[in-house]
Amino acid sequence: MNFVECHEEPIHIPGYIQSFGYLIGIDAKSYTITFFSRNISDVFDIENAEQLFDKKITDFPESFQGIIESEIYASLDRFTRRKNETYFDKIIIKDKEYHFSVFRNDDHIFLEFEEVIINPNKRISNKYDNFYFIDDAQEIWDQLLGTLSKIIDYDRLMVYKFMMDGSGKVIAEKRKGNTDSYLGLHYPETDIPRQARELYLKKRKRIFSNVHSETVPILSRVKDSIDLTFTASRGMSPIHGQYIKNSGASSSFSVSIIIDNHLWGLVTCQNTEPKHIDLEDRVQAGIFTALASNAYSSFKSKKELNYRLELNERSSQLKAEFLKQNSLFDSLVQNKAEIKELPEADGLAIAFDEYIVTEGTAPQRDVLDKIIEWANENVKENIYVSRSFLKDHGDELGLDESTAGIIIYFIERSKNEMLIWFRKEFDEHINWAGNPEKKIEVFVQNGEEKQMVSPRTSFQLFTENIKGNSKRWNSGNISAVHAVRDVILETSHKQYTVIKRLNDELKKVNEELDSFSYTISHDLGTPLTVMKLNAQMLLNNLTDGSEKSRHKINTIIEEIDSMAEMMHDVLQLSRAKYSEIQLEGIKTDTMIHKISENAKITFESPGSEIIIRECPDVLADKTMLHQVFLNIINNAVKYSSHNEQPKVEIEGTEDGQTIIYRISDNGIGIPEEEKHKMFKIFNRLDNAKKFKGNGVGLSIVHRIMKRIGGDVTYESSEKGTSFILTFKKPYL
After folding, report:
1. Start and end of every Phytochrome chromophore attachment site domain (predicted)?
2. What pLDDT, on the 0 to 100 scale, is given for residue 585?
3. CA 256, CA 12: separation in Å to the nearest integer?
4. pLDDT for the residue 101
5. Please, which residues have CB within 8 angstroms of residue 582's CB and are 6 or more apart in sequence?
6. Does residue 243 sit in helix, strand or coil?
7. How far, in Å, are 380, 510, 570 from residue 518 at the CA level?
8. Is 576:704 a contact under the CB 8 Å cutoff?
9. In the 8-state DSSP scheme, what is residue 650?
10. How far apart, in Å, are the Cα atoms of 233 and each of 24, 50, 197, 394, 471?
């Protein structure tokens, strides 16, 4: 048993037409008759229709007099020069007026007829085509339906918009009396499957006058099935016919809404009773629909232009702000609020190597790390957009409702530099016209049983809750991300020449500065020592001096100590950058215990509880390793010393080919807004200014860890800070 999907049904070659139409097909070269609808004998005086095959229309001058006298048929070659372009005329057959339509499709010319029907109730005035004066999308469609109702006069008229997934939604409606409203309802993709949408793009007006009437078969000498795509009377598929019946309608008429050469939607009209619409009225409905479509396209273009102008202005302002900063990272951080707002996001993360700065509603650091790792492994393009990130990757990455939608822009993939925008989960409810789930039925075609998705029998409201999605990122949001990208590229390019020119100078200056720092730090040690000794002698000899004098001398001594400490740290920083290193396996246990005990004495915190667990060996330079542990442990003891129960925990663990040390304290913590400054030289946090220090220690640690092939990161909250040191495992 074969299964036929809706999109596989050959609806363009049904082999029959509707009863209101009459069709004759002639060979495009010889003009001989090759096929016709069985009902043409009802209109033309033809005793035996079979005699028509392989003959010309002109071979039957009495029967086809109206056709022969038509201007179109008289110049058939001129009117069928272009493929699928339809021309209309009116002819008289047996004292009745008929519409006569002609077009060429491939090797055949189609001659189609239908009786002229006068609509005495049609009322059209000039005001109905003034779509271009309307500055509101909804009003354009409402006015279109109001205009068409004067021509078509069906029970229900709707504007049906196609969604990106092929489903549709009723966005405008005009109905009579107590007819149920479908406004706002969604329809699944299977209601108008892909091949039907393709036909709506080719044949833009489609009528089913009476879904209950018998169809008229096509009699043909052609081996292949006749393609009836462009015929007005093409018969409907059994599936669609049953669908219309199930909806409670007996007649249906639709006009395609084409915008930018794409099928944007349909004007769909339904009538409870069978009803035919005259060809001229159908053409006029198509003209009004085209006018409304163009007006909507113009409205959208104007709206898009205004948005672009506003976006350009904001981009220019952002560019000016970027150029005020000395680095791209600082530019991004200083303008993070505007960067978040441009694509209308709820949150933003700026990732620069180990630094991550957030704005608005964004995930915690551990989740961000997982997202960044996932992006590096799975995203190949420079810009990645998803509104279903939570639904698709929520369990895998430990996401919550703040990360339902995401845009990732790689600034420099090799340096792990990227921008990530976030959108919260959107509580989405879709009201379907009936349950969209597919049901399978068996039918017989040409003696063969087949399975096919059956048309829905219910159009009652069915509400579906959609979880894990954000609001859709629209084209304007994507344009805003592109604008941020362009600002980054342009400002980076402008700075490139300057940076290139200064780079050599900076390198030379840095070398001189480091040399100077080393010399100054070393050579000033002796005079500072002399100054301190003299100050201490003055203090000791001040037997009867005032307390004020003693305080001043003590202040001098403290400042000398601070200066000496700073010079010592600068000297260590210089050594960390330039001194030769010798990597070897080093035992850390004794070193850590000794530094920990000295730290309690140095910071006068004998009550500090320092818990030292496993201390595995690491691969490092011995002198530099001492500097690393000295700075980190000293900081942990110092910044927790004001706690009622100061506590420091030190533990090393093996992880594959790396050794990870975690040094945690219950001290003051690091404010979120200052985390990106942590490893910058001379940087001191606001909450740390009551403690002695000069902001050099962590810069030393950062520089050393990079030189020995390791890494340093941290985690912090109001309850304290943990520094994570990653070393290579010693060679066996």
Report:
1. 136-314
2. 92
3. 17
4. 96
5. 621, 622
6. helix
7. 46, 12, 7
8. yes
9. E
10. 12, 22, 18, 51, 42
In a domain, 418, yes or no: yes
Q: What is the pLDDT of residues 394-443, one digit of tens each?
A: 999 999 999 999 999 999 888 889 999 999 998 765 666 655 555 555 54
Q: Which domain holds residue 111?
A: 16-115
Query: How is 55-103 classified by DSSP, letter by letter?
Result: -BGGG-TTTTHHHHTSHHHHTHHHHTSSTT--EEEEEEETTEEEEEEEE
Which residues are registered as beta bridge partners of 35?
Answer: 25, 220
Cβ atoms 229, 175 nearer than 8 A = no
Among the candidates 72, 89, 115, a domain finishes at 115
Instruction: List b or e across 27-65, with b for residues whose CB sees 16 or more CB atoms inside 10 angstroms.
Output: bbeeeebbbbbbbbbebbebeebeebeeeebeebeebbe
Report the pLDDT averaged over residues 582-588.
89
Report which of residues 642 and 497 the model is more confident about: 642
Q: How far is CA 473 from CA 165, 478, 481, 586, in A?
A: 15, 7, 11, 53
Residues 348 and 339 sit within 8 Å (Cβ to Cβ): yes
Strands (E), 314-468: 347-352, 355-360, 383-386, 405-412, 417-423, 428-433, 439-445, 448-454, 461-466
Residue at 700 is within a domain: yes
Q: What value does the mean pLDDT take over residues 440-452? A: 53
Answer yes or no: is 217 within a domain.
Answer: no
Give me the residue label for tokens 């209109």: 43
Residue ending a domain, among 115, 150, 184, is 115
Residue 656 covered by a domain: yes
Rounded to whole angstroms, the Cα distance separating 34 from 413 reads: 64
Pairwise CA distance, residues 246 & 459, whole Å: 8
| DSSP E strand boundaries for 106-250 | 108-115, 156-162, 168-175, 186-187, 205-208, 216-220
Per-residue model confidence as pLDDT tens digits over 606-654:
899 999 999 999 999 887 888 889 889 988 998 888 888 999 999 999 9
Q: Are strands 448-454 and 2-4 parallel, antiparallel or unpaired?
A: parallel
Alpha carbon of residue 730 to chain centroid: 46
Which of 281-285, 332-336, 669-673, 698-702 shows the lowest mean pLDDT across its residues? Answer: 669-673
> How far does Cα 17 stand from its chain's mean position?
45
